[in-house]
Amino acid sequence: MCTSLSAGQRPGGPKNRKGITAPTIAPMINAGFPTPRNETSSPTREPSPAPTTASMIRFAISGVISHNTSLRETAKMKAMKACILPAPGAVESKPLQLADVPRPKPAEAEILVRVHACAVCRTDLHVVEGELAPRKSPVIPGHQVVGVVEECGPAAARFRPGARVGIPWLRRTCGVCEFCRSGRENLCERAEFTGWTADGGYAEYALAPQDFVYALPEGFGDLHVAPLLCAGIIGFRTLRLSGIGSGGRLGMYGFGAAAHVAIQVARYWGAEVYAITRDPRHRQLALDLGAVWAGGSDDQPPAPLDAALIFAPAGELVIAALRVLKRGGTVALGGIHMTPVPPLDYGLLYHERVVRSVANNTRNDGEDFLKIAAAIPIRTEVREFPLERANEALQALKSDAIRGAAVLRVSATS
């Protein structure tokens, strides 16, 4: 476990009249903030040390502490524990650091959520390892966040304190571009994303705009509803875009968190599911959930497919799926990142076969999916980790050691 850092304070700082150790400005200077006007440089003064992880965490996380934030305001901020990514790195190096950071305050139309659980997504892995270029640094990952409303901003009236809610990947869109105005907000070029461009749910508290938060259906525990907020929603959108219908043969390449939810929707719609995954444990899970066949990555399904979903981030699977796809069928790619797709023989694509990516999701996707999830009802299989073992959860995900979905249990304090 990492040593916890205090929120805005540093041991050994000067004491005020009440004998309380006050925060020092040294880390602020070291972190690249401007020197106060009443402080001058001396030619003989020792150069400031390079920015440290501690100074980055104290003064950059969440935008809560900036050079415009007074030291007095910083000292008054309540603290929370969070797993912070100072810089991308291989998960084997344990890049996430557990630290005490200031608890954020909700702005006008935002809500502050006390986090109960946060599911671990392969997108988190891409963020942590840098396969998605950093958009905020440091950042708190996590975008399948379940909790209760702790505090509402002045203009936030959609939820009351105590309401159970879910914070998803799509955090905000501009609302005025051609995509937002045509029901395709998932393609907004100014979209913000939880746990990537803004801090997420690997923490005791998380902020979110109220209009992008979901009310959660009854009947699901916190740990089991968390994977529905991305794995479930993106799997649902991928299913929709594949065009699969009742009686159709559907291939699923990769059988992790998204597939183990999507198969339940596909079967609810009357489709036959064929699972292709390299891990024998995942093949067994697919069969347990109703797949009519499950094979390895080098195996071919025993019948031609009407549609295929690819959840594994392996570009070569596009070619494998096209080889067994019927004329007019669709291969839908459900991931945000994928290794290069090999050169494509046009004969595999001919006869109106379609390869299409799936980018994010709309709020309508989420609302529609949560209704279906409650009606089926969806049953998620989860493996629980405490917040401080987030690095371990990501390592297990990377090595395909998770049957179903990994979920962080978070215990916040008021």
Briefly say what this structure is:
The chain is of the alpha/beta class and 414 residues long. It has helices at 26-30, 53-60, 71-76, 122-129, 222-225, 231-242, 257-268, 280-288, 316-323, 346-349, 363-375, 390-398, and strands at 79-84, 97-102, 110-120, 145-152, 164-167, 170-172, 192-193, 205-209, 214-215, 249-253, 272-276, 293-295, 305-310, 325-333, 354-357, 382-386, 405-409.
Write structural notes for this entry.
By secondary structure, the protein is an alpha/beta fold. The protein folds into two domains: 78-228 and 381-409, Medium-chain alcohol dehydrogenases, catalytic domain (Quinone Oxidoreductase, Chain A, domain 1), CATH 3.90.180.10; 231-364, Rossmann fold (3-Layer(aba) Sandwich), CATH 3.40.50.720. 24% of the residues lie in helices and 21% in strands. It has helices at 26-30, 53-60, 71-76, 122-129, 222-225, 231-242, 257-268, 280-288, 316-323, 346-349, 363-375, 390-398, and strands at 79-84, 97-102, 110-120, 145-152, 164-167, 170-172, 192-193, 205-209, 214-215, 249-253, 272-276, 293-295, 305-310, 325-333, 354-357, 382-386, 405-409. Helix 6 (231-242) crosses helix 7 (257-268) and helix 6 packs across helix 11. The two termini are 23 Å apart.
